[in-house]
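Marked as duplicate of an earlier ticket. Keeping the data here for the record.
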Amino acid sequence: MKEIGIALLGLGNVGLGTYRILADHAKDIERRLGARVRVRHVLVRNAGKSRPEDIPASLITHDIKPILEDKEVAVVVELMGGLSPSREYLEQAIASGRHVVTANKALLSAHGEALYSKALARGVDVHFEGAVCGGIPIIRTLREALASDRVESLTGIVNGTTNFILSAMANEGASYADALRRAQELGYAEADPTLDVSGMDAAQKLCLLASLAFSARVSPESILVEGITSLTPTDISYGREAGYVLKLLATARRASDGLDVRVHPAFIPAASPLADVSSAFNAVLLQSAALGASLYSGRGAGALPTGSAVVSDIIDTCRNLLAGVSGRLPLPCPPHVQDVPLLPSGDRRGPVYLRFSVSDEPGVLGRIASVMGEKGVSINSVLQRPPHPEDAHATIVVFTHDTREVDVMAAVKWIDSLRSTRAPTQVIRIEEGPGVLLASR
C-alpha cells in the first residue's frame, strides 16, 4: 500500500490529539484514503522535555532541517501557534514543495494572503479547517458546500472560553472573576486569557470566515472588537427579564455599501438558536440566498475536536496528492480576495441596552430622557431599581428602539458627564435581526 509521510510541528494539546487520532484511526483512514499516512517527524521547541509514552522518541526533533531534508515528507502540519517561528517554518515547507495544514488562526489572519500566494506559485495545498471552531466543519462548508450560494450574513459564537464564562455568569450568578478562574482550572482559559476575553481571538476567526464568505480582505485591526471584561451578572439578569440572553457575538453581514463586521457582547432573543449554545461549545449561523438559514454547532476547542479537523485536512491533502490535483487552494486567495468598504461602527442601527448608575434624587430619569431625546435616541422601555442598603446609587435600565450607534454613544457621553451619574454607563447592543432569528422560525 502507498505510504504518505507527514511531519507534525508542535506537540501541545492539538498536536497530541492529532497524533493520537492518526494512530487510533489508522485502519479507518487507510480504507477511506487507499493509502497509509505515516508520521515521520514531530518537531518540538524543547527536545529534552518528557513526552507521553505513545510518542516514539525517534520521531522527536527540535530542528526543521531534518524534516525539509526528508524526501518522504509530503505534508507539513503546523500546530505550534503564534507567528514565529511558525511563519518561517511554513514558508520553508512551501518553498520546498511540501503541502501545508495549519490550525493557526493568528498566523492566517496576519499573513494568510502571503502564504496563499507562495503556495499558489509553488503549486501546493494549504488547508486550515482546525483554525476556526475546532471540529465544526465551517471552513469546508463555506469553501465547498456553499460555493454555489451567496452568503448574506454569518453570526457566530466562536470562542469557547468566553462562552463558558458567560454561561457560568448566567446560570450560576458567578462573577466574571470567579467564572474566569473556573475556566482556567478546567483548562478552557489560558493563564493569560487576554486574547480570549478581549474578543481578539474571536476577531481573528471572524476575519477568516468573512474572507471565505465574502471574498473580502478583512483584518482584526479594521473592525470593531469589544470583549467581556466589563459584563456583570446584573446585566445578564436585567436582560433575562426582557427575554434576552447575553453572548459574545462575531458577526459579518452584507450592507448596502459594503460589509458590517464586528465582535462584541450582545443580547439576543431567548428564542434564537444561538441562545442555547452554552459552556465551551461554538456555533455559527449562516444566512445564504439559496439555502436560507443553516446552523453549525459543536465543540469549538480541545485536543480531539480540533485534532479531528486537522486530520480531515491531512486526508483531504493526501487525496489531492493521490489524484494528482495538488495546488487546489481553498478560496479566497490572491487574486480572488478584494478590498471591500467596511461599515463604520457608528452607522450600525439597532436597539441598545443601557444601564445607568445614578444618584438617588428627583429628576434624574427626566434628565437622562431629555438628553437621549436631544440626541435622537428613542426609549422603548425603562426599568428603575432603588439603591441597596450597601450602595447609595440607584440603577436605571433603558432599552431603546432602533437607533444609530453614533447617536447612542453621543447621548451616553453627555449623560456620563452629568453630576448625578456615579459610574460609566454600561452599553450592550441588542441583535434581533435575521442573523440571529431566522433559523428559529
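See parent ticket for discussion. The CA atoms of residues 77 and 101 lie 5 Å apart.
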